[in-house]
């Protein structure tokens, strides 16, 4: 009996051991499976992260590439458009202005009734209100009223209808230009006569009108019309494709101040004045010539001084004793300039110099060298631009120089 019981107990113990072993195996298999799953999951997450990084980097690269291409196309088209407009600068200005004004007028016509309805207590039709100019003219009209030519500076050629009693010289005097200017612009000779009703073209200043041809430059035009290239540049209504090189566009119209028509007979001889040697003139209380050379441009409403050119580039002399109040570069076009205050209401200005010999606050005597003639700033050649101011007003230097 005891032996039987021992065997049964041993059998149960073996069974328990087997069951424990199976449970451990199952646990170990579960851990192995879990670690495999975790490993595969981590690999999948790493792959997904790498794929996302690759995707977004490629997407950004693609967007940048597309944007660059778009910007390049835009800049190319813009550059072509700007180049075309810049080359044609001045040719279509009047058309743009006229079309713009017409557009503004049309917009005003369309918007005026809408605006009128927005004012409270206003029920009147704006189109029924008489024009102030018509009311004024009806009440103040004078049958003896005559038309006068405006004194406003003209920026373009004017068409003038010849009146009874007009001659070429009277028309020239009326508009402040030379007789030759009228004759040359209208293809007339000194023996030609004009008749009432005839249309004459009148330039804004004495000189000639030139239409730019291929190969023309400021210098070649000035040489053709025996004029100063500086005068062409200084005339305020002449425009350039490039303000640094004074490049011109083919077909544009240029005013040549004081120009002479080639192989034309002048009604009055042209005289070029040569300045005396400034260094030999010593007169107390009198303005002396600041430099020797040729006067290439005179005083006018658009050029408030005189230009004295000399290829030798001599020293510039103080026209009278005084104190230097400016000695520096002027970005507005004067280049290197000096201004001297003479203490009696007068000031003198010297521009376009290549070197400056004085400093602000320095006292100079009449005839002292203040700089060297040059071609700095808005200049076409070696020359001196000289101005005299009296109580702040620019006057004609030829009226006081001796």
3D architecture notes:
Helix 4 (168-175) crosses helix 5 (179-185). The chain has 402 residues and is α+β, with helices and mostly antiparallel strands. It is elongated, with a radius of gyration of 44 Å. The protein is 37% helix and 18% strand. The model is unreliable at 131-143 and 277-283 (pLDDT under 50). The longest helix is centred in the first third of the chain and has 86 residues, at 2-87. It contains seven helices and 15 strands. Strands 5, 6, 8, 9, 10, 12, 14 and 15 form an eight-stranded antiparallel β-sheet that branches. It has three domains: 1-87; 158-257, Membrane-bound Lytic Murein Transglycosylase D, Chain A (Roll); 278-399, Glucose Permease (Domain IIA) (Distorted Sandwich), CATH 2.70.70.10. It has helices at 2-87, 93-117, 132-140, 168-175, 179-185, 218-224, 229-234; strands at 158-161, 199-202, 207-211, 253-257, 294-297, 306-309, 315-317, 322-330, 335-341, 346-353, 355-356, 363-364, 369-372, 383-390, 393-395. Keywords: Membrane, Transmembrane, Transmembrane helix.
């Amino acid at each position: 009996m005891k032996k039987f019981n021992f065997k049964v107990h041993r059998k149960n113990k073996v069974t328990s051991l087997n069951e424990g072993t199976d449970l451990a195996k199952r646990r170990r298999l579960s851990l192995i499976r879990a670690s495999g799953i975790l490993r595969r999951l981590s690999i999948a997450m790493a792959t997904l992260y790498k794929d996302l990084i690759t995707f977004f980097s490629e997407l950004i690269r693609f967007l940048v590439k597309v944007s660059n291409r778009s910007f390049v196309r835009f800049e190319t088209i813009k550059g072509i458009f700007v180049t075309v407009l810049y080359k044609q600068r001045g040719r279509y200005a009047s058309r743009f202005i006229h079309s713009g004004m017409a557009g503004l007028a049309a917009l005003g016509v369309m918007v005026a009734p809408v605006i009128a309805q927005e004012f409270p207590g206003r029920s009147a039709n704006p189109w029924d209100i008489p024009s102030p100019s018509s009311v004024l003219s009806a009440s103040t009209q004078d049958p003896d009223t005559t038309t006068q030519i405006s004194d406003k500076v003209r920026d373009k050629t004017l068409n003038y209808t010849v009146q009874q009693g007009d001659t070429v010289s009277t028309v020239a005097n009326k508009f402040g230009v030379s007789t030759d200017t009228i004759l040359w612009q209208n293809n007339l000779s000194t023996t030609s006569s004009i008749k009432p009703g005839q249309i004459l073209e009148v330039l804004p200043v004495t000189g000639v009108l030139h239409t730019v041809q291929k190969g023309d430059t400021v210098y070649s035009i000035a040489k053709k019309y025996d004029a100063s290239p500086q005068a062409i540049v200084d005339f305020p209504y002449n425009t350039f494709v490039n303000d640094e090189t004074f490049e011109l566009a083919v077909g544009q119209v240029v005013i040549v101040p004081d120009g002479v028509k080639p192989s034309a007979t002048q009604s009055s001889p042209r005289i070029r004045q040569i300045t005396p040697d400034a260094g030999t003139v010593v007169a107390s209380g009198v303005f002396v010539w600041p430099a020797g050379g040729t006067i290439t441009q005179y005083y006018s409403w658009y050029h408030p001084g005189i230009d004295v050119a000399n290829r030798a580039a001599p020293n510039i002399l103080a026209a009278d004793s005084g104190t230097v109040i400016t000695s520096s570069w002027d970005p507005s076009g004067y280049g290197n300039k000096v201004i001297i205050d003479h203490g009696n209401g007068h000031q003198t200005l010297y521009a376009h110099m290549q070197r400056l010999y004085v400093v602000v606050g320095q006292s100079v005597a009449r005839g002292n060298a203040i700089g060297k003639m040059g071609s700095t700033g808005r200049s076409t050649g070696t020359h001196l631009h000289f101005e005299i101011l009296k109580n702040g007003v620019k006057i004609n230097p030829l009226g006081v120089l001796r």
